[in-house]
Structure formats: C-alpha cells, structure tokens
Amino acid sequence: MSKNSAGVQRFSPRQRFEHWVLMVAFLGLALTGLPQKYAEQDWSQTLVSLMDGVENIRVVHRVFAVLLLIVIAYHVTIVVYKLWVLGKSASLAPRRRDFRDAVDWIKFNVHLKHQRPAMPHYNFAEKLDYWISVTGLAFLALTGLILWNPILVTDLLPGEVVPAAQQAHAGEALFMVLAIGLWHLYGVFIKQFNLSMLTGKLSQQQMEQEHAEALASEAPTPKYAAAEIQKRRQRFYPIAGVILVVLAAGMYWLLTTEDTALETVPRQEVQLFAPDLNLQEGDANVGEALWGTLRCSRCHGTEAAGVPDGAPGLRGLELTFDEFILQVREGGEEMPAFSHLEVSDVYVLHLWTWLTSLSAS
Amino acid sequence: MLNKKYLLIGIGLALIVLALLTKTSVQATEMTPPHQAVLQQDGEQKPTNAYCLLCHAEAGQVWELPSGETLPLTIDPAILADSVHGTANPAGPVACADCHQNYRYPHPAQTSQSAREFRLERYGTCRICHEEQYLAAQDSTHGAALRAGQQDAAVCIDCHGGHDIQPPKEPRERISLTCGQCHGAIFETYTDSVHGKALLEENNPDVPTCTDCHGVHTIVKPTTVSFRAHSPELCGDCHGDDDLMSKYDMSTGVMDSYLTDFHGSTVVLFAEEESEDTGNKAVCIDCHGTHNIQEVGDGKAVRENLLATCRQCHPNASDNFPSAWVGHYEPTLKENPLLTLVNWFYKGIIPFGIGAFGLMIVTNLFGRRIFGRGR
Fold first, then answer.
1. Which residues contact B38 (CB under 8 A, 6 or more apart)?
2. Residues B60, B74: contact at Cβ < 8 Å?
3. What residues of A are in contact with residue B281 (Cβ under 8 Å)?
4. In 3-state terms, what secondary structure has residue B171?
5. CA distance B137 to B33
6. How many beta carbons lie within 10 A of that of residue A203, not counting itself?
7. Tens of pLDDT along A93-136?
8. N or C end of chain A, less CB within 10 A?
9. Of B268, B248, B192, whose CA–CA distance to A42 is shortest?
C-alpha cells in the first residue's frame, strides 16, 4: 500500500481505463438491449425512435457487443498474466470470510455490533459487484453469440436452445442492470462517495472503514523472484499472442458467418387478386357468378347478349380458350385489357366455360 | 293558415324530440344532421313523394344514356318504404326530394355519358345527412382509387344500394357479401377460411367479417408496410380477448408468446416507426395466412410448412431451424425443459437477488440515520 497525503493508491491507470471502457460497453448494451426486451413499453419505443429505429439499434447493440468481447478477452489475459506470470494472489477470489464480513457489516449497521469488520483489499461488496459482472457478462456474451447465429446453433444443438438463450439473455441483462444499478451505484456513490475510479486513490478514512485489514497488513512478498518472472513472461507472451489471434480469427468468423437477425430477404409479394389454382376445367356456375362480380355485364349485358351499338354478345362463344384469354389479356377495339392481377387465369376459364355453354341469342 | 304552419312545425319538432328520445338503432346515432333540417333547406316547399310518383310510378319508363345503357325511371314506392330510409327510419321517412334535389320540373338536363358516370354524380347526395361516413370514405383507399381515375372504385351506393338500402350489418354476412361483389376472388378464399365458414355456415357472431379487419368507411390500403406492421393488433383484438377466446376454448397466450418472441418484439418496435422500409418482419398472417386462415388444430399442418415459411425470409435456414420456434403456448417442463428452467431461474433470482441487495442497503441506510453508522 503506497500512502501519500491525498490518500491510498488503489487503482492503476490501466485498471481505471478498463473500468470506463467496460462501463461504456455496458451502458451501450443496456440502452440498446432493454428496449428490445420491453418492446411494448412507451419508454422503449421513445428510446428506439431516438436511436433511429429497431434495425439501427440491433446494429449498435452488436458494435457494443464486440467492444465487450474485446474487454472480456483483455481482462482474462490480464488476470492470467497477474496470477501466472507475476504470481500475485487472487485478491478477488471469494472466501468464506467474505460471507462473515457481510453478516458483520449488517450487524454493525443495525447496532448489533460495535466494531465494523476489518475488510481486505477487495471487500465482500466489491466482490459481489465483480462476480455478478464477470459471470453475467460471460453468460450474456455466450447467449448473445447464440442469438447472433441461430441457424448455426440449430445445426448443432436442439432448437430449444435459441429461445432459451433469448430468455436467459434478457433475464440476465435485467438482473445485471438492476444489481449494478442498485448495489454498485449505492456502494460507490451513497455508502461512500468514492472517486477512486477517477483519481485512482481512496482517502485514508474511507480505507479504514472499508479496507481496514488491507491497510494494516504489509505488502505481500512476491511469490516469484525477478528471474522467474522474466522466464514466465517470455513463455506467456507468445502463447497468449497465439491464443488471442486464433480467438480473434474464430470470433471474426463467428460474427460474420450469418446475419439472420439483421438481414432478411424482402417479403415476397403475394398477388391477392390472382389465386393460381391450376384448374383444368372451368365451372359454368362460377363463371355466371363472376360475370356480374367482375362487371363483364356492364358492357356485355347481364345475360351476355350484348348491348345494341355497344359491346358484342358473347353467348355461345365460338372462340377457343386460348383465343378467348388472349382477347381478355390484350383487349380489343373497345374492350379494355385485363391483366392476371385483375382477372386470374382460372377466372377466365370459368367465364369461358359459362359463355361457351350458353345458347346463342 | 299561419296557425296551421306553426302546428306543422310543432308536430315536426315534437317528432324530432320523440325520435331523439326513442332512438335505439346505431344508424340513427351516426346521422348528422337530422332530416328535418334538409327538408327546411331554402325554406322552400318541397314536393311530396306522391307528387313525384305522379310520373315515376308509371311502369316501363327507362332513360337511355349516350353509352347505350339504360336506367329505369320507374320507382316502386314499396321498395323505398321497406328500406332504412322508409317507414322504419327513426328520423322519419326520407322524401324523394331530400336526395333528388333537382326535383323542379322540367328536370335539368343530365350530362352523364354512362350509368357509372351517373352513379358517380349521384352519390354525393349521401353527404347531406351522412357527412362523417362520406368524408371517411373519401379518405379511404376507395376514395384514393377514384381520384386516381379508377371509376369502378366503390362509392356509397355501390355498397349500400340506392332506393333499396337495407341495414348494412343485418344479417352479419351481408357485410362480407357486399365486399365480395367486387373482391370476388378474395371473398371466395375467405369463404373457405375458418372465419368465413363460421360466418357463412354457422352465423357465428364473433368471427371477423371483412370490415372487422379492413375498417368500414375508413378502409386503408392493406398492402402498405404500416398496415402490415400493425396487423398483429387486428388479430390481437380478438385473439387477445380472454372472454371471447374462452368461448371457443382457445388460448390468448398466442399474443403474449408472439410479443415475447423475437419477431413480435421487433414488429412492435418497428410499427412505431414511420418507416416505409421493407416490411419483412414476420407477423401473424405470414404463418397463418390472411383470407385463407385455417384452423390450426393440432398444429401439424403448420409445423410441416414451417421450414418453407421460415425460408421466405431466411433462405439459408436449415432443417432444424424451425425447432427454435417452440410454439404459441406457455412453455412447460415436459415440452421445453431448458426454456422452462431458464424462465424459472430468472423469476427467482431477480426478485431474490435484488431483494437481498435492497435489504442490505436498507440496513445501511437505517444504520446511518438512526445510529450515525456507516460514516
């Protein structure tokens, strides 16, 4: 513990930078993710429209997701480096005494104990923050990647994994946002107004209250000698480098192999007016009904007997079906042309069947 | 003479008050302004029906239009009396001259070239009493088509008739039959659907007729992205209604499960945008159809078509892809163990975990306030 007049050094610039990058990724993901979970809420719809629509926030969500994946890879690399190369102790690993500290802290709060617990460098409250984040973000990344690649996943696993991942992604996200929003923010803003993530330092008084044990204890002696650390470092760099490159390549493939949720082909237009039933035979009764429905009768007369000085009568038609449909499709001198969108092929067949069945007037 | 006029006005006013007090039918409430106002227009004495019928009752009269079409000039007063504007009208029978305001004899020359032109010139008369419906129809897709030069687009009298207007919703199937006059192909498809069969064969009072989904006078164009994006709301009006669905032993979970699903939440958010972007987000009708909706039954037919349905938008979907859709019903431990366990887990951990944090914070706040602890 290095002490000076302004307080105790607690976080290195590197740690602080990591924290703020993670916070940006976390907030970005929460802001673009939660409205998708609560699509029916007004606030969701307001947020989504502010961010230029649901298609846009899906892309933005993925950009922040990539940032988060980078932070996760970075963090894991650093942790392995610190534990394996530098031989530092796992100061964030949960211990049984953390539970006791938590109970003692509550007892102290409600006056059942007069002494607040003397807590280590990372106390139980911070370990809760850390482990909720580590497990939550890893799980969110895993389920997110499933949702990113539903076709690939269903090729390999039962389909139920996809909706389960969706519910788990949404549930875990909500839990994390509430837990961090409540516990972490209470801890760093209200319980103690704590600016150590900005300044890197915590005041002597706050250290005494929150980390009395760490303050009292001597700095631990290094596990490895400098030469051993140097040896380990030389082995660590190439191995970590190779693993990270392979991981990055694998992740690049995973993130670009499909875009099911982002891109879908445009919906096929359905011709509402033309049911293509592929009928081989027309029905004269249907043809008769269609005569009025399609308004052929307006020009050719209700009985298809024609109108004087107007459209010709069509009773007892002598045209073949092919000639008749050509007439309908291309029109004639006065006769308008009707496309298959207006009068389907099968309707023309019905009409032709009826007209040819009539006795000529 | 003066007294008689006041007496008539008094009787007229009394009739209006009576009509207003006793009006029970929907038609009466929809109408503005009351007929009496029309009758008193210009303060001019309008001819009685009997006066018009002096000529128009004579059988066999036709008017030949320049197009060669003929329109009957003979009126059967019984048909008018039997219509909604006749003796059953709560606001009193409508007179010939109320609608035909060119009643002065000799009648002004007609300029219509065809029967259709004549009808298009005539239907504006409905506006005198039914302004709200008239304006709504003008704003509808029919009105737009008419302005775009499509003369066949439906106007008031195409759907309601002229002299023979009957209550448009009685019997209920009259609604769909009316639309079927022009939209024959869709009507035929509808008659084979689960909704159409129930309406036409069983007189079912709950299934949708055309107007339940498309609207009555305010019929909008149904092929727009916006109509499509909002279409689940149409289905949800009935399929999310517990009282209605319990009558048919159907689940309202279909709407909830859709809205929880990726497609549903996407569509809900998309529908709020004013985007005319590609409307390729799955809605109810993409899997169930529109006018040809069939009973789902055991869902086997839907399942068999599912891959083809998925591929409409996801062409690369593989054989197992549809199994990611777990159906519309509440997941059960037996059917969807993983999904059910996930749901249970978060139903437990969120209130439990957040509750625990909350309690710990409360003890700290409590300690600070009461004992000055924590500082």
1. B98, B128, B129
2. yes
3. 264
4. coil
5. 18
6. 17
7. 999 999 999 999 999 888 888 888 999 989 999 999 999 999 99
8. C
9. B268
